[in-house]
Predict the 3D structure of the following.
Amino acid sequence: MRTLKQHITKRHQFHNGTDPIIHLPLIKFNLHHMKNHILKLAVLLILMSSGGSLWAQYGIGTNTPNASAALDIVSPDKGILIPSISLTSSSTFAPITGTSSTTHNGMIVWNKNDITTSGLSGSGFYFWQNDPTTSGMGYWYKLNSTDDGSIPESGTVTNSTLRWDGTNWVETTTLLQTDSATGTATLAANVTVTGTLTVQGSTTLATTTLTAGVADADGDFGTEGQVLSTTGTRTNWITLSSGLVTQTTTNYTASLEETTIYVEPSAGLTITLPAPTFAQNGETITIKRINAYVGLGDTLQVVSAATIEASSNPLLMNVGYQGYTLQAFRGNWFIIQRF
């Protein structure tokens, strides 16, 4: 068997001189190996360029990205700038282009708009959360610092409110906003007021303990010994000599704790006296009309389940500034003074 060297030498001697043809076997040999090297290099380059797809890891500023990160950015003196845009409403996806969907959940932007209306809370980082079933509907939520506490994303009771417990925001059902249109709120538990409580509309109170001053309609807090009286539309602190004094412009049911009832009817009005027991003999109530009788429906009558002057008929008080003092005796009422 001839070696490559012998083969080349023989061909060299045969032609007796240098001829390009003597190099052909050697050239063919080198091209074959070069093709192998080029193929291996191409495969290596393909593997290197597709590394992100194969391992889903990219590193910027590092050759060893974190194994748990899709993107690992390393820099000793640089930061990352998130896109800065101007949001106009917490429920408007724009100016981000396209129609929002759940695929946009978690999108983060820096809102450079300082407005605190339309659901926004000024500038800062916001993330988008889309409605799970409706495209184009969702909200921007501001990323708060840990000092702001964790605000619950949803509640368990309709109209419940958030309460700060000193550490976190928690849902509470003790204060329910029962009418969002009017802002009506219902207190469902005991409430302690250490400052000034101002009630503008009608308020229904159960058991109430007052440890501070209570202002009347004029802003007065009253003095020691005074009682808070109501006309049905406003309140006033008044001084009593004894018993209770009441002023009313509407139908009223009296109690035996009251000694005087001032009545100012502008329409038909009824005062209802309780039915006294025998043990309450001697109790008195004075009813005084404090306006003129016009005769245009401004009638005033006094009724009771017991008799008045031995009659079941109502006691009429249709004379201007008319008054009666009635006394309980043997389960009925008797007039002891007219004025």
About this structure: The radius of gyration is 47 Å.
